[in-house]
């Protein structure tokens, strides 16, 4: 019945052909690090909860990629074999730790499964080197509540590994990590000179919206604890340059240019990922030092419902009005009788 209704509305319900899964390519900040990783992982299989990684030294035969086995090529020329602009990404990356090791694949089930549950791999990466997994397309992208979706080419999608002491400000308030990540995505766009006019904002708890009605991105965070350390994987997807299924940020920018006769350039995936990771690291560092209050102020400034007036009525004679205020992500209203 649903299929019939959708067809009446002009929406095609024919099954499409999913793109084939592709190998992953490991890239690192410098050759010395790359050689170290080749020595550590070359020819080794790291078994994960849902996906095993098979590290293939360059010049060896690459096995077929499946949903359960992902070949990871460790080679000096990897950056030349992928569509991702590694040079541009590194030019924009300004972090101390996060994002210095990048795993890229054109098509994957979900970037989240590469790191989530693969402790064998994650534990063998030095603490001062953050891993990020980036994909061109996802065929089983993960969302909250077990939701799964297709992420087409042009969507900015990645999973980022972070870790911090359990006995720290963020370690004691881990749910804030999802809010940090979603705020970072919005700041990566609006803090870029000239792009503060782009109408993107946050909807609680961690969705990214265009205007007040169209969702264009979201965040998922999974975590585990070992000893006194919390290990978390931040998964993010944002419609950056894909026109479907709703609207993309670059389409929003194009429309703004037409209406205001401006010349803002489209955003690239490489720069926007790097700027997002930069901001995640900055926000985490600030949260660890200064706690919740300064972060809430920043979140509130990008909140979708900031300064929205709520009208509430007890009966036909009595009503009250109040401007929303964000206090630890709950609306607090003063009732007027």
TrEMBL record:
Domain BPL/LPL catalytic: 87-288
Keyword ATP-binding found: no
UniProt key word Disulfide bond: no
MF terms (GO), sorted A to Z: biotin--[biotin carboxyl-carrier protein] ligase activity
Cellular component GO terms, alphabetical: cytoplasm
Record's keyword terms, sorted: Ligase
InterPro entries: aa-tRNA-synth_II/BPL/LPL, Biotin_CoA_COase_ligase, BPL_LPL_catalytic
Protein name: Biotin--protein ligase
The species this protein was found in: Acropora cervicornis
Source organism phylogeny: Eukaryota, Metazoa, Cnidaria, Anthozoa, Hexacorallia
């Amino acid at each position: 019945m649903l299929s019939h209704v959708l067809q009446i509305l002009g929406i095609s319900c024919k099954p499409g052909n999913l793109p084939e899964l592709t190998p992953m390519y490991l890239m690192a900040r410098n050759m010395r690090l790359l050689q170290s990783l080749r020595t550590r992982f070359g020819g080794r299989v790291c078994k994960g909860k849902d996906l095993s990684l098979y590290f293939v030294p360059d010049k060896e035969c690459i096995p077929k990629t499946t949903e359960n086995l992902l070949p990871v090529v460790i080679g000096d020329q990897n950056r030349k074999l992928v569509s991702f602009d590694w040079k541009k990404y590194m030019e924009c990356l300004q972090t101390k730790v996060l994002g210095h090791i990048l795993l890229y694949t054109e098509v994957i089930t979900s970037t989240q499964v590469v790191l989530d549950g693969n402790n064998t791999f994650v534990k063998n990466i030095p603490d001062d080197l953050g891993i990020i997994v980036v994909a061109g397309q996802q065929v089983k992208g993960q969302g909250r509540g077990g939701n799964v979706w297709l992420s087409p080419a042009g969507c900015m999608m990645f999973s980022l590994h972070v870790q911090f002491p359990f006995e720290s400000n963020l370690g004691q308030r881990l749910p804030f990590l999802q809010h940090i990540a979603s705020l970072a995505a919005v700041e990566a766009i609006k803090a870029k000179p000239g792009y503060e006019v782009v109408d993107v904002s946050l909807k609680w708890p961690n969705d990214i919206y265009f205007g007040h009605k169209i969702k264009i991105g979201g965040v998922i965070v999974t975590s585990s604890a070992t000893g006194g350390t919390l290990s978390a994987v931040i998964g993010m997807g944002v419609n950056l340059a894909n026109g479907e299924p709703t609207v993309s940020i670059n389409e929003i920018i194009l429309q703004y240019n037409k209406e205001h006769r401006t010349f803002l350039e489209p955003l690239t995936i490489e720069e926007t990922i790097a700027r997002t990771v930069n901001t995640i690291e900055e926000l985490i560092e600030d949260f660890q030092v200064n706690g919740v209050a300064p972060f809430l102020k920043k979140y509130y400034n990008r909140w979708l419902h900031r300064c929205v007036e709520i009208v509430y009525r007890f009966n036909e004679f009595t009503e009250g009005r109040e401007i929303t205020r964000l206090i630890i992500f709950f609306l607090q209203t003063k009732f007027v009788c």
